[in-house]
Amino acid sequence: MGFVDIHNHLLWGIDDGCRSEEESLEAARALEAAGYSEAAPSPHTRSQFPSIDAALCEARLAEARTLLAREGLSLQLHRGSENFLDEAFFERLGRGESRAIGEAGRYTLVEVPFTSAVPRLPDLVFRVRLKGLTPIFAHPERCAEFARPGRAEEVVRLGAALQLDMGALLGRYGREERKVAERLLGEGLYAAASTDLHGPAEAQRWITEALAAVEKRAGRAEFLRLCRENPRRVISGEDLA
Questions:
Q1: Domain holding 28: CATH number?
Q2: pLDDT tens for residues 184-210?
Q3: In degrees rounded to 5, what are phi and psi of residue 39?
């Protein structure tokens, strides 16, 4: 189907994602079997993980591309990262280290705390936009800040985008997270849907189920916009549909 995944932890041994080459290879096979043709691994840029090192991530990405090609997989890998939206992130932006998605460098995947309030969120969105980047918020359905009435709508209105963690529709993170995901999807607030895949365990099964859940709830056209069209636009730096 040519799906594109802009949020996953496919690169091994650098964050809380895949732990070995074998796991990365198995996870990549699961993505390909579920219909994905492209993926942008998004290692965490937090100090507690080796993936804070951009050079290490770039080297591991090159290794992963070589591994997949050697094993006969056609899954195409792009640059990416999952950036915690804190002052360290803005310091990196000030040094020209955007850690953006894809080679075009127009969009960047960001995350906020799961349980803490983020009262300055609109200002943070403005600061990212001021740097010429469009922030895409990872898994908003799992963040308390986006459960606040009107917060998701406000962020989208300010020029940010929201990324659905498809597993939320299956209840993988809890009942309330599922309800928020269903609401945001029903209101058309998501710009893309991704796996946030951390490992290969039963990956093909649940990803296939999650894709089906998105299509059932959103309809065919919206499903393709979220899982194929917009993620590809993110990679290539084009306007979102």
A1: 3.20.20.140
A2: 999 999 999 999 999 999 999 999 999
A3: -155, 145
